[in-house]
Amino acid sequence: MKKILFLAGSNSSKSINHKLVRFASSQIMGHEVELIKLTDYDLPMYGEDMEREKGYSVNLKMLYNKIKEADALVISVNEHNGTVSAYFKNTIDWLSRLDRQFLKEKKILLMSTSNGKRGAASALEYTKNVLPRFGATIVESFSFPSYSENFSEESNSISNEVLLLGFTDVIQNFVHQIEQ
Predict the structure, then answer these.
(1) Count of domains in the chain?
(2) Sorted alphabetically, which InterPro entries does this protein's record hold (predicted)?
């Protein structure tokens, strides 16, 4: 049994990426799943002066330990102006300063969603290219378009049958990859 950590790269209290990653966590059977909110690990805006003067916060070390304890991660990233949010980038900056290889040997399912037709695909591509620098292995990815049209918050499920089939396939492939 593998330990899988689920999180969204958003700090919005109504994050659709968190809702998508929560749904994904409900689809994994036979493994230990943990869903966290990055907002529970408050980090200041990264800066060299801040790092030099204050060092690494307890929140950063707690988040780092959560990641280290996991065998795999499922991350859903949001998009601001065609790239990842400053919030998520800041989290990555802090974690990589604490340990440049903070994702070493971690298999990752990377997702994104938005209410647009591209489903935050630009943020997804950016993140797919960046996380391997920190040791991650991206084993699957999924961009979920037009969230409000294709996801039912009432039933907490994907309402578009084609997208549901694709999502299920990605989840199954991810589970298969982490079991190897």
Answers:
(1) 1
(2) Flavoprotein-like_sf, FMN_Rdtase-like_dom, NAD(P)H-dep_reductase
